[in-house]
Design a protein that fits this description.
Blueprint lengths: L1 E10 L2 E7 L3 E6 L6 H13 L18 E10 L2 E10 L5 E4 L5 E2 L9 E4 L5 H4 L2 H15 L3 H23 L5 H43 L6 E6 L13 E2 L5 E2 L14 H22 L10 E6 L2 E2 L6 H23 L7 E5 L7 H11 L4 E6 L12 E6 L2 E3 L1
Parallel strand pairs: 3-15, 3-16, 8-14, 14-15
Antiparallel strand pairs: 1-2, 1-4, 4-5, 5-6, 6-7, 9-12, 10-11, 12-13, 16-17
Helix pairs in contact: 4-5, 4-6, 5-6, 5-7
Amino acid sequence: MYLEHLSLTDFRSYAQVDLALEPGVTVLVGANGIGKTNLVEAIGYLATLSSHRVSSDAPLLRFGTDRALVRARVVRGGQTTVLELEINASRANRGRINRSNPVRARDLLGICQTVLFAPEDLALVKGDPSNRRRFLDELLVSLIPRHSATRTDYDRVLKQRNALLKSARAGKFTAGHVATLDVWDQHMARAGAELLHARLELVELLRPHLAKAYAQLTDGSKEASAMYRSTLQNLMDDDGGAAPSAGGGLTVAGSAAAEDLRYLTVEELTGRYVQAFAASRRKELERGISLVGPHRDELELILGEAPAKGYASHGETWSMCLSLRLASYYVMLDDARTGGSAPILILDDVFAELDVQRRRKLAAIVSGAEQVLVTAAVDADIPEELSGRRVKVIPGGIDE
């Protein structure tokens, strides 16, 4: 897969810009603050419907405007698809595929696939668990677009259930609310089980590729791994006590240990969640918030025998972040061999953050991708392994 053309209207700093692209390596060169990242951010947003820099859409709109347009021509297996995404300030975003009638923005997911490396990736190791959950979910949706609806359904149910629990904390919870909470428990159990089951499968796919990528980027003296930690580890047993699991967590008597949740079906996970909600209801009513569910899970990153967070050096942290993205790339390549497509690789100002050794190793790994887009302030930041087309970015546009 590769991007043949990108056009932006009122996106970030650009009133209008058009960029012709081609397979292989393209380096966007320009001074810091000139708008290089805005170009690749738009491509990443088209692929995932989220930005790697901000959590809301408002900053994506050029100041003083109420909508932005991202248009792209994607070539996949010899077939060209024209995508258009309208980002709106006051209404839902909309998309078009091959100039058809407007569709939901999420209907574009899966058509343009990217793996984006950026300095913000340090949060994957150093940040809170939400960064790692987001990493998993974005990759999941890229591979299986229907899971966008899975995430949306879960977030909707979680919001409704939390609103009900907050009413209890405010003293407005009555006996009549109990039946309503029971209904939301069932909805959230099912939606949570769908999301958890998908995440567990994805982590199993990622784990060997993470170890491989870290070994490629380093001297191989330490092994990188990942462990999914579910709040179902904290289930209470039938007697109200806690049954220790082999991993030190808690589990319901008769249920699988937390590290074996991947062997359970969606239906079985749904049952576990129903039990968990019942066991934690008193605490949830007291605190006014849902304490169990995928929204509180953790992807623990392990380097050697210790957690990467808090123990990894700066260089090791960077290697772990890069390895997560490379593992994503390898998973998507595996998917491409069974009917998917190889993703576009985007490296946003990454090389300036790396030492010479890591620069060369990363460049050697990604140079063989069908399309690689790189941003850099100066040519000197780009390793020789990434020789290719250079595009100069200037204020408000590009200089061909």
